[in-house]
Amino acid sequence: xxxxxxxxxxxxxxxxxxxxxxxxxxxxxxxxxxxxxxxxxxxxxxxxxxxxxxxxxxxxxxxxxxxxxxxxxxxxxxxxxxxxxxxxxxxxxxxxxxxxxxxxxxxxxxxxxx
Amino acid sequence: xxxxxxxxxxxxxxxxxxxxxxxxxxxxxxxxxxxxxxxxxxxxxxxxxxxxxxxxxxxxxxxxxxxxxxxxxxxxxxxxxxxxxxxxxxxxxxxxxxxxxxxxxxxxxxxx
Lengths: 114, 112
What we know:
The complex is a heterodimer of chains A (114) and B (112).
Chain A: E1 4-7, E2 10-13, E3 19-25, E4 31-38, E5 42-51, E6 54-57, E7 65-66, E8 76-78, E9 87-94, E10 104-105, E11 109-113
Parallel strand pairs in A: 2-11
Antiparallel strand pairs in A: 1-3, 3-8, 4-5, 4-9, 5-6, 7-8, 9-10, 9-11
Chain B: E1 4-6, E2 11-14, E3 19-25, E4 32-38, E5 45-50, E6 54-58, E7 61-66, E8 71-76, E9 85-93, E10 99-102, E11 106-111
Parallel strand pairs in B: 2-11
Antiparallel strand pairs in B: 1-3, 3-8, 4-5, 4-9, 6-7, 7-8, 9-10, 9-11
């Protein structure tokens, strides 16, 4: 089954404790991205990757890091989480970035930083 | 001005009626437009895409695009309670680095 898998689904952590949210897709997609979703603000892009070893900032990259060492995986790293990073996070992938292909989303990770 | 704007609602429509969802965008050069549906606590799923002016129909859903007015809409005919969800408009902006920008979403409730 074609899918984007995120882990964990739920995470409560403390301020400053490094964490990683994993994302993996099995569709051989080139383009992957991370979004956060907050009430009233919609989905905002954090980082994206157009292929292996190619990553770039989205609209809200501060406080986040990513890597793309393999085509299927695109982890999101919070080196020192803060309460304002409490949010619902989605990973997405698409076949290519021509802007005309469907984005497939993971199940989401609800992160709470206390 | 936001890059992609939607009325956040909530929009309440009786069962069987037509639900009309609207979206405006700022980049006149945008080429690709999408409507995603998101149930509470779930991930967005694509329901319609449209690339040229006019209407595109798929079952009970019709997407309408007017590039001159920078306006895209989604009509849901014969609305069902299962259509109750948040609908996200997404636009591929072509200014600078290409990216998919989402509106804040419109929460739709279908009343039985």
